[in-house]
Queue: 2 jobs
Job 1
Amino acid sequence: MKAAMPDQAAPQAYHFADDGETPNNPALPLLVYRGAVARAAADPAAAFEEAFARHGWRRSWRNGIHDFLHFHTRTHEVLGIARGRARVEFGGGKGRELDVAAGDVVVLPAGTGHRCLSASADLLVVGAYPDNSGFDQKRPGQIDHASAVAAIAAVAVPREDPVYGSDGPLKKMWSQPTRD
C-alpha cells in the first residue's frame, strides 16, 4: 500500500547557528513539512515508515522525542509525527520552540540540537536516518566541540528527500548550503 502524499509544498526552513554548546548545522537548514503525510487510521506510523524507506531513510524507529537536549554528529534525522502533538526545542538553548502535530515531518541536519518540551499523551513519532550515514547521539559537553563541528561538516547530503524523493525540496534547499 502506497502512503497518500498531499501535494508537495515548500517546507518551512530554520537556520541555527553554533551557540558554543550545541553545534547545530551552519550550512543546512532544519526543514518542517506541515501536514506532509496522510495517516492511516489502523497504523498511523506505517505511512511515515513507508515513505521514508522508499526514499532511502530505512533505519527507522517508533517512539517519542527525548526530553533532553541532544544532537547527532554523523547523521541527519527525520521525525514524522504519526499521532499527537508536541512542543520541541530545536537549535539548543538559543534555538526556537516549534509545535508539531500529526502529519508533520521535520528533517534535522546533522548537529541540530533538539529536545521535547511537552507532548500529548498519545504522541507517536517515527524517526529515521539516511542509509548513507552513521549514528551517534551526543549531549552538549559529551564530545569535544571542535570534533563535533568537523564530524558534522563531513556528513553527506542524503540521496533523497525523505518525503518526496529525488525531486523533493530537500534536494534543492540542501544543494547550495549557506554558512551563517
Note: The mean pLDDT is 92.
Job 2
Amino acid sequence: MRDIFVSHAVADRHLAEMVVDLLVDAIGVPPRSIFCSSLPGYGVPLTHDFNVDMRDQIQEPKLVILLMTPSYMDSAFCLMEVGATWVKSLTPLPIVVPPVAFSEVTRTLGLRQGWEITNAEMLQAVRKTVLEVVSIEGHDNDHFDRKRRRWEKELPEALGRMPSSPKVERGEFDRIENENRARASDIAKLTSVNRELGRQLSALQKLRPVALVVESEPRTAEDLSHFLDQQGFLVGGVARTEQDAVDLAARLKPDLITAEIVLADGSSGLGAANRIVSFSDASVIFITAYPEKLLSGPKPEPTHLVVKPYDLQTLATIVKQSYDRTLSERASRDRQKPQG
C-alpha cells in the first residue's frame, strides 16, 4: 500500500508526471511511497489486474492527490476515485486546474481547501501538507526552492498541452441550440421564397422568352439587359465568368444568350457557349470587342456575331433572326416526334 495516491485522467499524464516529480525531486517523498497509474515504476506492475490494483491502492493511502482538470471531470472512472475518497474519509489534496473552478471541489468533496495549480504562493503550503500527512522530513528549504522555480517555469507549457473538454456549459449549449433553430427557420423561409420565385419564373417563361447575358463589364451588361427587355425577353441573369454562365444556363434554360468572348477572370465566353449548347438549344449571339478570337477554336453553329460598338437596330434584327431560327428548329423537332 502506497502513502500517496495520485488520481488523474489518462489524458493528463504529462501533468501527473510533473506533480510526481514535484513530490519526489522538490519535496523529498520517496518514489516507493507514490502510486500513479500512468507512470512506469509508480503504477500497476506487469501481470497485475489493473482494476484490482487500483481498488487496493485507494483503500487506505495517507493522502489522495486529485488532479482536477477538464478531462478529469469528464471521466467517470476519475469521479469514482473522488467518490471513494469521500466515502472512505481519506485525506484529499484537490489540485484545481483552470478552467475547472473551485466550486467543483465543493460539489464533489464538500468544504475542502484545495490548491489552484497556478498559485505559486501556495507551493510552500502544499509541501508542508505533504510532509505532515506522510510523516517524513523531506528535502531542505534551499533544495525545495531550486526545484520550485523549475516547476513554475515548466508549468505554463504543460497546461498548454492539456486537452480541452468536449463538453460545453449548459448556457452556451442553449445559446448555440437557439442559433441553430433560428438558422433552420431562416433556411426554411428562404427555401420557401426560392420555390415561389421558381414558380414565378416558370410562369414568366411561358409568357416571355428567357435571355442570359454573359458579360463582365457591368455597364454593358446593364445596357444589354435593358435592350433585351425592350425586345420582349425576360433577362434571367447576368454571368461574368465562363463557369457562372454554364451554371446559370443549366438553371434558367434560356432561349437566347448574348456573350462577350473575353470574360472577367480570363475565362472564355466562347468556351461557355460551346459547353451550354451541349445541353441547350439556346441561340448564341457573340457581342464582342475581340471578333478575331472566334477563329481560334470550335464555335456553335450557326454563329451570330455583333462587333462592339454595336448599332441597336442591327442588333435588334440579329436577335429576332436568331430567336426565330430557334423557334423554327424547335417546331421541326416537335413535328418529328412520334405521335402517340
Note: The longest strand covers residues 63-68.
